[in-house]
Amino acid sequence: MLRWKDVIYYAKYSNPEPARRVEKTEEEWRQLLEPSRYRILRKKETEPPYRNAYCRSYEPGQYTCAGCGSLLFHASEKYHAISGWPSFTQPATRGAVKYTFDNSHNMERIEVRCNVCDGHLGHVFPDGPEPAGVRYCINSESLIHGSIGC
User: Fold this and answer.
1) How far are the Cα atoms of 34, 37, 43, 52 from residue 40, in angstroms, in the given order?
2) Which residues form the MsrB domain (predicted)?
3) pTM of the full structure
C-alpha cells in the first residue's frame, strides 16, 4: 500500500522502473489520440469537473491509460470523493504511475503520470480515506474503463 510518504519519496528521488516504455513524437501522439485526450495526456490540461465520463461511474473493472493501454487503477479502489473527477485510493501496482512535483498555477501539487508513456493523468493529494490517506484525482479523458480480463 502506498502512503503519502512513499509518494513524496518517489517524486523527490526516483520513481519505480516501468515494465516497458512507450515513446512517440508529439506528432505521433497528436495523430493517435482524440483532441480532448491529447490536451489532457500530452499538454497537461484538466477536464471540467463533474462533466466527465467517470466522475459518477462505479462499475467494476479496471482503468487503463488512454495513451498506451497500461493498467493504472482497479475500480475497487475508486471512491466518491466529491472532487469532480474520478478518485482512487491506490494505483493498480506500485509502478503503474510516476510522480513529479508540479508548481503550476501558483500551487504546490504532485502530478501523477502514466509510468509507461508519461501521459498526464492528474494529481495525488494527502486527503484520501484511511488506511493510506491518499487521493488520486484523475482526468476521465486519460482513462479507458474496461471489465476485468479485457
Assistant:
1) 10, 5, 6, 12
2) 26-148
3) 0.94
